Amino acid sequence: MPFRFSADFRRQLNQLAQELLRGGGVGGEAGRKGRTPGNVEFRDHRAYAPGDDLRFVDWNVFLRSGAMAVKTFTHEEVPEAVIVLDRSASMGPAGSRQDALAREIAAAFGFLALRAGGDAVLRCAGGPPHPGIPPLRGERAADAWIAAVEAAPDPAGPGGLEQLERLAAPSRAGRVVAWVSDFLAAPLPAAAFAALARSSSQRFCFVVCAHEDALARVRRGDVALFEDAEGGGRLNARNDATWGAAFQAARAEHVAAVTALASRHRFAAVAAGADAAFDSVVRRALRETGGA
Amino acid sequence: MTLLNPWWLALLPLWPLLLFFLRTRQLRRPVLVADFLLWQQAAARLPRAALQSRLSWRDLAWIAPPVLLTLGLAEPELKMASPDAAVLVLLDGSASMETLGPDGSTRADRGLREARRLLGSTSHEVEKTATRALVEAAVMIRAAGRAALVVTDREIRDLPQEIGLVQVADDAVNAGIVSAGFDPDSGLLVRAEGDQGAGPRTLTVSADGRVLETRTVPDGGSARVVIPAGSVAGAAAVVAKLDPPDAVRADDVVHLEAASAPIRVAVAPVLPSSVERALRAALAEIVRGGEADITLLVAPLSGEGGFETGPGAPREGTLELAPGFEGLAFPTRWERVYPLVKEPAGTERLLEVAGAPILVRHGRTFALLADGDATTFFSLPAFPLAIVRILESAAPLAGKVLVVRPPAVLSPEETHVARAIRPLSRPPLIEKREPARQPLAPWIFGAAAFIMSVLGLWERRET
What we know:
The complex is a heterodimer of chains A (292) and B (463). The radius of gyration of chain A is 23 Å and the shape is elongated. Helix content of chain A is 34%, strand content 22%. In chain A, a hairpin with a 5-residue loop joins strand 8 (223-228) and strand 9 (234-238). Chain A is an alpha/beta fold and 292 residues long. Chain A has helices at 9-20, 28-32, 59-65, 97-115, 142-150, 162-165, 190-198, 241-264, 278-288, and strands spanning 40-47, 69-75, 80-86, 119-125, 136-137, 175-181, 202-209, 223-228, 234-238, 268-273. Chain B is of the alpha+beta class. In chain B, a hairpin with a 2-residue loop joins strand 24 and strand 25 (365-368). Chain B starts with a strand and ends with a helix. Classes of the chains: A alpha/beta (292), B alpha+beta (463). The interface between A and B is large, with 46 and 30 residues. Strand 8 of chain A pairs parallel with strand 2 of chain B.
């Protein structure tokens, strides 16, 4: 059954965008007047040519000199938000809290970029082959973006970090990268962090660890055979306090290690557990970098 | 504990095997885990013991019901031995059983020794029984299905054969004091008798250490000592002693102690039965027409002791009790009270209802002014207690007597020393008694059901 966000999700996204993009966002007024989105600045005049938009004719120049001149502007490049969504099996199972939270964070981040007039690009790392979608731009593409995140493949298979390491350098300045993953790889993907750091100007790292409690499926005191969803091996675990405590310690250590690695590559790192809400996670990440 | 169907136990090894099989199957069914890497790291943190598979209490709890059911099918039974000993040894309780033999042991000791020899390892209990009741007790015990063995120094001829018998006999002969008593009129009387062959003895009577009389008891004869009451009137203790002592010590010495004589109560020829019963219960001596310590009159009275009463009438009201009668629960309503129309001067009112006297006293004379048949007073516990209080008030008037102090034995029957009986040893017939059987299967099935219910509830709570 394909993944679907909750009916309330779009409302929550709008509320989040309204709160975070109070200043009009990256595109500002220009974005809302149909011009090329982005920050605009007056550059020069040029002679009017038939077909030019009469709204850009400088009537002061015409009154002073009698010549028709058209204003030209320099456009600040629109930011491109690249959202890397981990689709390896460790992000599952499909429809689980882990899967849903990761998709919610990815969708929210891209939605904010679109509402700011920028581009949103979804990259899936790992999982089944995904044809990918072309970059989406502008607020009108918000529904397409959400549908694209919903249509992202279900978690399966290994991590596929090599794709991230081959991520191309930005075509223009202002690329923002948000990496949504549990980063369950041994060793930690330092090369991928470095590659993403090279190819972006602003970086976010969402460490999503909202996995189902595997011991909850085991009767207290019983032993169960755990098998790696990514095919990494098997082990016997017992549902008792010793195992529970050891697991909590291992998870805390993992989150700390990922956060440390992300910080070294200037990522704003935010951890999200099973009880975290996507909007508060995104809000916290943006607060770390000084807002939208 | 015995098993009626022990072959069911052959199933027992199956249950641990089943448990092992289920556990193995459980471990063969892997659980896919997304965050496996974290579990791997957790395992690396744990000590070796935590990683090893081990039996949990729940495994054992789940295996308990089938194990218990198997045990229950084997039908275990608990054989419960009878709490009673197999044989009851009835020991003759007469004083002659204390007759000492040449080795210094008593007849009872020797008889019990022989009884133990006869019974061997059979469990038994010893119970002392009066000589007269020996045969009857043995027969009753036998009838109740229990073996009995009688140990005595009498010749018992009518004892059923299945009852064991030990007859103890020796050559002892006895001389002893057979009677000792005091009468305020006749004085102290002591009599001693000796069997033929017992030899001459000396009977000495002394009061408070002072010898009053010495008399010789000839061999096979008797002696009688009579001491006037006045000679022993003030004595606290009198001892009658036969020397030298013989094999039966119990009748060689008698101690008498000074004690208060029963209070003699003079009563009218016609006395309500309730009053008579209360007087006898209080050990008073009822005197009709003789000298007495006190006089008890019951209304209606016509001049007896100076009292005269009018016609009886019901009375009801507050009670007034003289000192000494407090705490007794008297009725407040009296069906018929005879009012005093004449009384001697100085009459003291001990009990009054609504101002009418019920019990009065004048010197040594007490008068009850209520009708014993028409009132509930005589059926109440307060009535005999009131009589006791009257007698207590007269206690200083009672005389002194000498009474025999236990354990003196003054019965020739008790101190009888059989000389010609035939020693006899006969074991009792001991029938094998099947021990009571208690089947344990219902309890075991119950325990299995209980454990399963608890485990079921536990599992439901956990899921």
